[in-house]
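Usage

Read records sequentially. Each one opens with the input sequence:
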Amino acid sequence: MNLSKICKAFDALTVQELYDLLRLRSEVFVVEQNCVFLDLDNKDQLCHHLLLYKENELVATARLLPQGLSYPDATSIGRIVTSPAVRGTGVGKILVDLAIEACYSLYGKGPIKIGAQLYAKKFYETFGFLQSGDVYDEDGIDHIEMTKP
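and closes with the structure output:
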């Protein structure tokens, strides 16, 4: 699959790129998953954002959080989302591989923590993430903390 990758700090995003990532997050987290939550949590401005485009359409995105923003002892990857249009094509795997690589490049090699939706536990285990916390409810969806040492 021919994808173009963009990884930028928040302030470097174009208005169109920002719109694209917020729209995709809203489409999946709010509409598809029926979660009423405040997506704009004042962390985006302190993060790098990974965007994967297929032609001119954003098909996947993740935000990369420096150590201390979500976890005191680890960097983090959050707001991991793929468009329903590309599910089952391997784009999610490409996104997570690139996000891990970008975290190491931007923030140094060290542990990465995520708050994963419980149903995706096996998916994240394929990247070396291990469950590191109990199941918790976030916006009506079971989640677990996972760490890639």
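Summary fields computed downstream for this record:
- Residues 15-32 form the longest helix (18 residues).
- The mean pLDDT is 94.
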